[in-house]
Amino acid sequence: QILILESIFNSGMVNPPKDETVRIRKLLERFGSVGDANVFY
């Protein structure tokens, strides 16, 4: 999950819109449980 989030951040996405956070959360959930803090902060 951390590698995915780092990749997203390094691509320039710092504050994703709500619809994008939903997509990111679904992606991260493939690899374990996800709380809002994982995606938003």
From TrEMBL:
Origin superkingdom: Eukaryota
Gene Ontology molecular function: DNA binding; DNA-binding transcription factor activity
Name assigned to this protein: Putative wuschel-related homeobox 11 protein
Species name: Nymphaea jamesoniana
Coiled coil (residue ranges): none
Family, similarity comment: Belongs to the WUS homeobox family.
This protein's UniProt keywords: Developmental protein, DNA-binding, Homeobox, Nucleus, Transcription, Transcription regulation
Gene Ontology biological process terms from the UniProt entry: adventitious root development
